[in-house]
Design goal:
The protein is mainly α. The chain has helices spanning 2-27, 30-43, 45-54, 58-71, 92-98, 117-129, 139-159, 161-168, and strands spanning 106-109, 113-116. Helix 2 (30-43) crosses helix 7 (139-159) and helix 3 (45-54) runs antiparallel to helix 4 (58-71).
Length: 169
């Protein structure tokens, strides 16, 4: 049920994610956290290009492609583009919405949190269709791709720690 999933997620946050985020914030200097955030954004750009193209948002697809190529020089650790916020991140859930797929039921999913049926389907499709997952550039790329969701969760929890803790406690 949604209540059980919510209780599980709160326990996961309290016992794993919150301590990991606090440790990350304590150990990693701001410049290091910014580099990791840049890399997380960079590695998601091919999916944005793919979804923007499916939605007919060709300017956004072109911008995300350019940002990905330019920032490939630093593996996304340093944002070399003039305006990183000019790209609107797009996911498959948004593509489904663009195609008028109904939102569906609300679900509290263990680990993933609250989702509509459409957004959950979109997350699964994003994982399957992410162009980065098709690169066979060696074990390092595969390791980074595998660790991305965990690192992104810890980074997000670290950035939003004060707001989330205000709500939680």
């Amino acid at each position: 049920s949604n209540r059980q999933a919510f209780a599980f997620n709160m326990g996961l946050d309290t016992h794993i994610l919150e301590p990991a985020a606090n440790g990350y914030r304590t150990v990693m200097p701001p410049a290091g956290r910014r580099a990791i955030d840049n890399h997380i954004d960079w590695i998601g750009l091919p999916a944005t290009t793919f979804n923007s193209t499916l939605q007919g948002r060709f300017e956004n697809a072109a911008l995300s492609t350019v940002h990905f190529i330019v920032n490939s020089l630093t593996l996304g650790l340093v944002d070399l583009t003039e305006d990183p916020k000019s790209v609107n991140n797009q996911d498959f859930g948004q593509t489904l919405a663009h195609l008028n797929v109904p939102e569906g039921n609300f679900l509290m999913v263990p680990v993933l949190g609250p989702n509509s049926s459409r957004s959950l389907t979109g997350k699964v499709a994003d994982t399957i269709t992410n162009p980065m997952s098709f690169l066979r550039a060696g074990e390092a790329v595969q390791t980074v791709q595998t660790l991305r969701p965990t690192v992104a969760a810890v980074s997000f929890r670290s950035k939003m720690s004060d707001a989330l803790n205000d709500i939680k406690y």
